[in-house]
Amino acid sequence: MKKTIVTVLCICIVIALIFFSIAAGGRDFSANQTATLNILLMICSCSIAYCFIAGEITHNYSQMDKLWSLLPVIYAWVIVFHGGMSVRTVVYALIVTAWGIRLTVNFARKGAYRLKFWEGNEDYRWSIVRKNPIFSHGFAWTLFDLLFISVYQNLLVLAICLPCLACTESDVPFGLTDIIAAGLAVAFLLLETVSDEYQWAFHKEKNALLKEAGKLSDLPYPYSLGFNTFGPWAYMRHPNYLGEQGIWLSLYIFAIAAGVTKFGIFHITFAGPLLLVLLFMGSSVLGEKISSGKYPKYADYTSQVCKYIPIRKYKPDNAENAAGD
Questions:
Q1: CA torsion, points 55, 60, 65, 70, in degrees to nearest 10?
Q2: Which residues make beta-bridge pairs with 262?
Q3: Which of 232, 229, 241 is nearest to 300 (CA)?
């Protein structure tokens, strides 16, 4: 865990240096694009301050979780309006808006939002992370809240939107590569939407059954497993994570279509989608560690089903007797 924290802090420092170098006038952005980036950085700075202060005062550390689906929509449309409203950037912003609506609705039905925005249900994983011995001293958690939850995640959310900014001064017309980028992003959005709907329906039914049965082992199969194996979850352990990463990697293809990349595919804004992938690598490890501790059959599930590649369907041993296991 200590190595993980050190790695996180190092990543925070690296990404902060990248952003400051861009804001100072890096060669990858024009003067107009840098001016737009400065506006985005001001919004990002306000969000950082809010997340840290509100989190420390209320002890609800899901402030950034609630903003995660809202900020990219704001960033995308700021870029569109300051960048000349090209077809490419408008399509990019529309996809991000659809993504933001879906994610906001999904988080809202979990009780995350309240009229008093700083209230609402906290993501259950933060309470588990806080129990780690490394955070036994209050200052350690405060530092983690500042550097990772507030600073790093806010900068990451801004970073994943920057391929749109890179497209604003392109004179390459909207074409086939853009259509491929949009099509892939929409496909991944549909995968994420379907996956979350199956997940929501499963746990809603499981929790309703638990109120009557009292304990997990008394539930009918497959609810007795405790974890979802319906829909895409029967073939992938994290179809929603695949969808989320796929959306932002697909949106980066717009930068390739705009002709702003070097050596065909590389641009500094690829740092955002890449760091998002790294974040979900850590998040998936944490989630699976939690599930393995809660559900006896989860190890069997992970042994059969890949994280992201739908090679085979989950077939639990003695499925007909699983309810009594």
A1: -70
A2: 266
A3: 229
Rg (CA), the chain: 21
Q: Return the bridge partners of 266, or none.
A: 262
Q: How far apart are CA 280 and CA 264, in angstroms?
A: 26
- The span from the CA of 206 to the CA of 221, in Å, is 10
Nearest-angstrom CA–CA distance, 63 and 15: 21
CA distance 221 to 315: 13
Structural contact between residues 313 and 235, judged by C-beta atoms closer than 8 angstroms: yes
Query: Measured between alpha carbons, how far is 66 from 151 in angstroms, rounded to an integer?
Result: 15
Residue 188 structure tokens: 């991944």
Specify whether the CB–CB gap between 206 and 219 falls below 8 A.
Answer: yes
Predicted model pTM: 0.88
The answer for 87, left when phi > 0, alpha when psi is -120 to 50, beta otherwise, is alpha
Is 317 within 8 Å of 304 (Cβ atoms)?
A: no
Domain spans of the chain? 2-212+239-293
Q: What is the pLDDT along the chain (325 residues), one digit of tens a residue?
A: 455 555 555 665 565 555 555 544 445 788 899 999 999 999 999 999 999 999 999 999 999 999 999 999 999 999 999 988 999 999 999 999 999 999 999 999 988 898 889 888 888 888 888 888 888 887 899 999 999 999 999 999 999 999 999 999 999 999 999 999 999 999 999 999 999 999 999 999 999 999 888 788 889 999 999 999 999 999 999 999 999 999 999 999 999 999 988 777 888 899 899 899 988 988 888 889 999 989 999 999 999 999 999 999 998 875 544 444 3
SS3 262: strand
- Conformation bin of residue 259: beta by default, left when phi > 0, alpha when psi is -120 to 50: left
